[in-house]
Design brief:
- There is one protein chain.
- By secondary structure, the chain is α+β, with helices and mostly antiparallel strands.
- It has helices at about 1-30, 100-135, 140-170, 220-230; strands spanning about 40-45, 50-70, 75-80, 85, 90-95, 175, 180-185, 195, 205-220, 245-250, 260-265, 275-280, 295-310, 315, 320-325, 335, 340-345, 345-350, 360-365, 375-380.
- It folds into four domains: about 40-50 and about 305-380, conserved putative lor/sdh protein from methanococcus maripaludis s2 fold, CATH 2.40.420; about 50-65 and about 210-305, Elongation Factor Tu (Ef-tu), domain 3; about 75-95 and about 175-200, Beta Barrel (OB fold (Dihydrolipoamide Acetyltransferase, E2P)); about 100-175, Helix Hairpins (Orthogonal Bundle), CATH 1.10.287.470.
- It is built from four helices and 20 strands.
- Strands 2-9-12-11-10-13 form a six-stranded antiparallel β-barrel. A four-stranded antiparallel β-sheet has the order 6-5-3-8, with no helix packed on it. It has a three-stranded mixed β-sheet with strand order 19-1-20, with no helix packed on it.
């Protein structure tokens, strides 16, 4: 029994040794070679053409708007338009009862005829007295009185002519015409209503919707940055020097027609620190209506030498400065502070700190330490399979 126990122990020790040896061989085969440089995914920076844009919220506003009001008093006889329809400038919208104004015009014309009749004898008398004065047949006083009577008659004719013109204008105002072309809203009065000259309550509103304005706002700091980039030549606009604008509707669909930036306000809103921008869009189908909430994509310009770094490769140090890790000389990792301007998609637009050809680490940052040697592979490439170690004897 003692002999069998010793044999059993020897066999067990042998089996255990073989198992340990086999496990060590497998472990050596699966692990990386000692001292191998860790792999990191890098992006090599190359300048590219980038169109810079900003998405701003805003609302639509009519190109022109006119509030229709009466310029004389009277009773509305007819409404000559369909609510919500298109009207043309000069088209008659309402008809006020013209009877009183026709009578006033006829009275003014009669007064003019009477003044002209009085003018004729006054002119003859003044002429005769002028001839008789030279022969001392009339006194100087009689001559002067005749001349004064002539001037009075001429003034009466001028006043009567003005009264006729005024009466004709009032008669014309009985037909209330559209001041602009556009779409007219609902009517606030019906036939039979009494209206007064220049009343506060409006009769209807006309809005010109083609083209149409889109008013948006932008912070004053962004406006200053845009002006600096345009002045330095970092951003280029079109040949006309205007920025183009695209529109996204409330439901997220793009508006098919492009617009243009017309002007910006000359002052900053002290409450919000923003500047108002006005853009203009064609609206032939009148798909855009006043008051709609939309998003305007403002094409600020283009940068022909833009350097873009993926956002995943940019971190910030405790001071808040943006930094990246590069694969530099001798394949060693180095940290470099950079200055970023804005996001372009999922990238940062770099203004300072990087140059074309720099290799920025975007994958494997946890394995990269400043000063260590790494193996740089293009980001997105398949990882290199580890080489098996030689079998141990």
């Amino acid at each position: 029994m003692q002999r069998m126990s010793k044999a059993t122990i020897l066999v067990s020790v042998g089996i255990l040794s073989l198992a340990l040896l086999g496990g060590c061989s497998k472990k050596d085969a699966a692990g990386p070679p000692p001292g191998a440089a860790p792999e990191v995914g890098v992006v090599t920076l190359q300048p590219r053409q980038v169109t810079l844009s900003a998405e701003l919220t805003g609302r639509t506003a009519p190109y022109q708007i006119a509030e229709v009001r009466p310029q004389i008093s009277g009773i509305i006889q007819k409404r000559l338009f369909t609510e919500g329809a298109e009207v043309k400038a000069g088209q008659t919208l309402y008809q006020i009862d013209p009877a009183v104004y026709r009578a006033a015009l006829a009275s003014a014309k009669a007064a003019l005829a009477r003044a002209e009749a009085n003018l004729y004898p006054a002119k003859l008398k003044a002429g005769r007295f002028a001839e008789l004065l030279s022969s001392q047949a009339v006194s100087q006083q009689d001559h002067d009185e005749a001349q004064a009577a002539l001037k009075q008659a001429e003034a009466d004719v001028a006043a009567a002519e003005s009264a006729v013109i005024n009466a004709q204008i009032n008669l014309n105002y009985t037909s209330i015409a559209a001041p602009i072309s556009g779409r007219i809203g609902r009517s606030n009065v019906t036939p039979g209503a009494l209206v007064t000259a220049n009343q506060e309550a409006l009769l209807a509103t006309i809005q010109q919707l083609d083209p149409i304005y889109v008013d948006v706002t932008r912070s004053s700091s962004e406006m200053m940055q845009l002006k600096r980039q345009l002045a330095s030549g970092a951003l280029q606009t079109d040949a006309a020097g205007a920025a183009r604008v695209k529109l996204i509707l409330e439901d997220g669909t793009p508006y098919p027609l492009p617009g243009s930036l017309k002007f910006s306000e000359v002052s900053v809103d002290p409450g919000t620190g923003s500047v108002s921008l006005r853009t203009l869009f064609p609206n032939p189908e009148q798909l855009l209506l006043p008051g709609m909430f939309v998003r305007a994509v403002l094409e600020e310009g283009s940068n022909a030498q833009a350097l873009l770094v993926p956002q995943r490769g940019v971190t910030r140090n405790p001071a808040g400065t943006a930094t990246v890790m590069l694969v530099g000389a001798e394949e060693k990792v180095e940290v470099r502070p950079i200055k970023v301007v804005r996001t372009v998609g999922d990238n940062w637009l770099v203004e300072e700190g990087l140059n074309a050809g720099d290799r920025v680490i975007v994958e494997g940052l946890q394995r990269a330490r400043p000063g260590t040697v790494v193996k740089a592979v293009p980001f997105g490439a398949a990882p290199t399979a580890p080489q098996p170690a030689a079998a141990s004897k």
